[in-house]
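Why predict the complex rather than its parts? Because the way molecules touch one another can change local conformation, and only a joint prediction can capture that. The input here totals 688 residues.
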Amino acid sequence: MARLTLALDVMGGDFGPSVTVPASLQALASNPELNLLLVGDPDAISPYLNRTDPSVMTRLRVIPAESVIAGDARPSQAIRASRGSSMRIALELVKQGEAQGCISAGNTGALMGLAKVVLKPLEGIERPALMTLLPHQQRNRTVVLDLGANVACDSTMLVQFAVMGAVMAEEVVGIPDPRVALLNIGEEETKGPDNIREAAAVLKRTPTINYIGYLEGNDLLTGKTDVLVCDGFVGNVTLKTMEGVIRLFLSLLNSSGEGKKKAWWVMLLGKWLQKRVAKRFGHLNPDQYNGACLLGLRGTVIKSHGAANQRAFAVAIEQAVQAVQRQVPERIAARLEAVLPKSD
Amino acid sequence: MARLTLALDVMGGDFGPSVTVPASLQALASNPELNLLLVGDPDAISPYLNRTDPSVMTRLRVIPAESVIAGDARPSQAIRASRGSSMRIALELVKQGEAQGCISAGNTGALMGLAKVVLKPLEGIERPALMTLLPHQQRNRTVVLDLGANVACDSTMLVQFAVMGAVMAEEVVGIPDPRVALLNIGEEETKGPDNIREAAAVLKRTPTINYIGYLEGNDLLTGKTDVLVCDGFVGNVTLKTMEGVIRLFLSLLNSSGEGKKKAWWVMLLGKWLQKRVAKRFGHLNPDQYNGACLLGLRGTVIKSHGAANQRAFAVAIEQAVQAVQRQVPERIAARLEAVLPKSD
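Output of the joint prediction:
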């Protein structure tokens, strides 16, 4: 792997530097070609850099930032007051070519808006979309978008998402001629709101897209499609619902049962078997696929879950590494040129 | 329990009489005060009535219907051509007072539209909503609506759903002063689309509603609220996503693992543990809470899942029994009068 530099907004997310800095050190340790620019308050960062291996420290630089965008700030206000914030500086480092991609666990709306202002959308894209690779039952992954960047989407946006998702599936997941579906409340053509039915009509007559029709929520993890497209409101609620259910199951598996006293050997056997079962569900654990990619920009931007723990934030850094290496923005730009109608 | 008669559209759903008739017999057997009117094609029904206990047969009557509304029919067309269909006749039996409630596993849009035409909405309700009682982590139930009756909802409809949901939680689940939340993509006030933020503003200043704010998808099963309100598109996708994930887990639990050969005692222990775990998840099994109630009508209408099996359809019948016994429509009407703004 060639040398690669990423900029991190270490102040964002529910836990700030206490999670993002240890995760950065973890990523640096496991990836010897990686360099990281940690953007944030140096005083908040430095306590977590004590006793860091010197060979790792040489590949890390702290970039001071004066302010942090609050998680509950209204995006429009946050963007106006963004100068000097850790999120904006991280994006500007990408714009200036100092970094090839950036990661933030901060305010999603602000990240989306600032990324548009600083990095600009690709030619032919109205609004970027948040995308993730969801592991599914067939032991491969589904590209799902939008996950919350756009609360409401018209049919044109949904079609653009479908194109970007297909490029991701082909170039990053490695699926030739990937299947593309729209998330809807029924599989029949007559179902759902106008914007989805209009997008379906366009996708059906787009020869470069392998459009397979509507899928319902229960097919999210079945692997029936390689790309699943929806608006950001539905995508966000759906993904969080799925995560909530999975976490509930994993916690039930790990909990100690009804509270009745049991013989020691039953407890031991139970624990051993529970571990085995939990292992079989492990690939569905939300911590393992943290990191949504903001697609449609002239640069790589990864949004980490705000509540991400160290392991999950490290996964988001790894996602950024992959997106940069696979040249996702460049490949999307090339495909868009071939697929989208020319403006005239 | 007093004598109670329900009308069943036995032709609806993916499996028709092969599921609905055996489920009816099961319900009759377990509920000696229940009478059922089976509406459908007598030739399709009668094979499933062979060898039925005579004491059960006396509480069952077949009402002939000439046609069936197709599951994929466009609701507007289906309603125009509905005369003589099993779904319409079942609703008319309620209208005429022959039955106190009805159940169908057929086309949701058509059922919603026909119920509005035949039974009429309650005073003050624009559009009925599909509601279900979802079991949650705290071993109680959350009232969730709308689950698909209304693809798009304005803020007024969401407020009406909140009122109806609160009545359900109080009267049927038995929760005094139930907590009411709106499903959204963040907990901060600034999050989400206009209709949700407007509904939040109204609910906040409605003293008879215990409004607690926004909840996200991951809180669907945590029991943080007693009533969860959303539009029908999001509700449908969310519920199906949840069901899909739960079914995936239950199937993984029951599957035999990676296919490696195992010692007999490992297999035995594995089976034993799987049973224990499955038991702890049992209350979340979708088959156990099938049956969504169409709230806001002058009568009880239960929509069963189209893919319901015999057990699940019997649960839907039981839901109808409960709704009639608890006088859900009457109680909602009374509460609406007190809560909703008078039209002047």
